[in-house]
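TASK: fixed-backbone design
INPUT:
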């Protein structure tokens, strides 16, 4: 397989026909048999892969996303379709997105976005990143698990949601367990909605749109403290944080398994939980 084959396999598994902006074949390569894969792969991991004789390095978190504000807008626009399905008009979500995009542009603008790329090229190490595909797989996998767990059951409490998440091996084996950030163990969950794909957190105003559309509990990978405080002040919904590394791992492990079935040796590291 080559780097394009690896990427195409991951895209297909996620149900995508085109490569999202947060995926990249930074350094292409052919005849790949051994892959070193992690959540965050930078110059040290590239050097390690070179020393250990790997043919390709795969990073989950993208190294070049955020080079311009257009990319940020593309990811945030995914919330338009999600919220439309819940009954929220597209124009309303669009206004929220513009506010969030401007806020995020300040953070992304200062990033050293070509650091890993330059190292990979100097080492002549095939290097790819794939973010959205793994996150989409995680989102669907966790949503299906929770839907099946609580099918036909009313008045589910947040503690039950946390316990259900820990039935998934990546959460069970993680050093950081799922945690309730907004609400309490005894709070009723209501409609549970898993929101994990989309590059980064959408911010409290967009989260509020989900709650006002009928979602009772959002299951997220992570949330900044200031956003959690803002959601608490809204007093309309709950937030359960599943965990960043284990949530990323759900999708990454499925991609790694798919590659292994094709005869590729995949070694996982740098945050991936089995």
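OUTPUT:
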């Amino acid at each position: 397989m080559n780097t394009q084959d690896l990427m195409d396999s991951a895209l297909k598994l996620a149900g995508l026909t085109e490569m999202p902006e947060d995926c990249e074949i930074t350094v292409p390569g052919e005849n790949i048999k051994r892959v070193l894969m992690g959540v965050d792969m930078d110059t040290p991991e590239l050097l390690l892969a070179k020393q250990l004789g790997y043919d390709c390095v795969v990073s989950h978190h993208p190294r070049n996303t955020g080079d311009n504000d257009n990319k940020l807008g593309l990811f945030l626009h995914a919330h338009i379709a999600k919220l439309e399905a819940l009954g929220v008009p597209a124009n309303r979500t669009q206004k929220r997105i513009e506010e969030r995009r401007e806020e995020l542009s300040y953070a992304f603008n200062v990033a050293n976005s070509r650091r890993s790329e330059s190292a990979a090229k100097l080492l002549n190490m095939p290097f790819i990143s794939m973010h959205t595909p793994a996150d989409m797989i995680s989102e669907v996998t966790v949503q299906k698990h929770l839907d099946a767990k609580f099918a036909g059951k009313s008045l589910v409490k947040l503690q039950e949601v946390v316990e259900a998440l820990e039935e998934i091996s990546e959460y069970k084996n993680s050093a950081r367990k799922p945690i309730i950030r907004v609400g309490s163990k005894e709070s009723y969950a209501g409609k549970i909605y898993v929101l994990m794909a989309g590059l980064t957190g959408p911010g409290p105003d967009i989260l509020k749109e989900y709650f006002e559309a009928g979602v009772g509990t959002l299951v997220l990978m992570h949330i900044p403290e200031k956003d959690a405080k803002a959601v608490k002040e809204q007093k309309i919904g709950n937030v359960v944080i599943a965990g960043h590394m284990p949530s990323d791992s759900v999708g990454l492990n499925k991609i790694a398994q798919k590659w292994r079935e094709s005869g590729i040796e995949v070694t996982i590291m740098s945050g991936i939980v089995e």
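COMMENT: The longest strand covers residues 23-27.
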